Predict the structure.
Amino acid sequence: MSKFSQEIEVEGHIIDSSILTKIFDQIMDLKGEFQVKEIDIGKRKKDQSYARLEITGKDQNHLNTILKMVYREGAVSKSQTEVSLKKSPKNCVMPENFYSTTNNRTQVFHKGKWIQVGNTMMDKCIVVKGKNAFCVPVRDVKKGDQIIVGEEGVKITPPERPREGSNVFEFMNSSSSSERPTQHIAKKVADDIYNTKKRGGKIVIVGGPAIVHTGADDAVSELIRSGYIDGVLAGNALAVHDIEYATLGTSLGMNVHDATLAYHGHRNHMDTINAVFKAGSIPNMVKTKKLTKGIMYECVKNNVPFVLAGSIRDDGPLPDVITDVAQAQREYKKILKDVSMVIMISTMLHSIATGNMLPADVKVIVVDISQPTVTKLMDRGTWQALGIVSDVGAFLPMVAEQIKKKK
């Protein structure tokens, strides 16, 4: 073995999930050399494969750069070393060269054992306490926390390509398109929502006000009422427009059903906010029968938790909106615990924020009329997202109708 070489190994469904190909690509893109020392390809579709490679760099720094990239693709060093730990120097400060997490399943080699890292999120550090390791946001780091530094002793397991059935994720191959048959995609999405719930999975919606503008409010309300949605994450706008539509029939002063401007419609938005403040909260508005339909109503009536995260541009905001963004982020994370599927609808910022909190094995469907919104979410790291470029006002009612047929 060359002075600047190291053996790595990788196992799992590394062929059909393209993991081995990505490792080869990373080495070649970085002008490194590799030699396949051993490879064992599974003979049946459930069999795992194994490969051992020797990677060579021009010097130690070059080799370290290559290793850093291939570790991120799922490889580990053949001669496994323990993770390195350094103490946080003070609250909210991570040590130099801290390991920055991905959203993939992660294990760390500590005290001779592989430990599963909990609370998986991207762009966090890993704190080790006793026999446990978990992702921690910088603001929650405490002085003296033992934090992993460097790449050694960390193992990533990228999600495998769907191997069974024909759900929407296999059908679309996790890409975004505006040219596929919308009705067929709606049926596939409906199938996946139905099957996820049938298996006892948890589904959360992340929504923007376009749900109301485009006329999809009734469809989302139906999904909540029918028990398919287990949480709603949004901002001030979705709640205000939903309640405006439920009480006044308008959204931003426009009649939702015929897109005409309502008389004095410009006041409706602020009238709605005032009505919620008068009731004291959204649940109180439901309790006093001032709110009798809509997304927020269905959440309250069906005990479906919702979190409204504030923004600097909010009107009001409603009394139920959390204006401390750090606290709102924590509350989002609580709703997302053990989630199986997240449906993101016409809200770029809330979708990206939510995507950053999700492990890579959580199914993500993002629906938006804007192609850049869909691609930006994936570019920011939520690469497992299935992007559907479509008018939500047409698409979501189709999904709700397809699910209704299954009852």
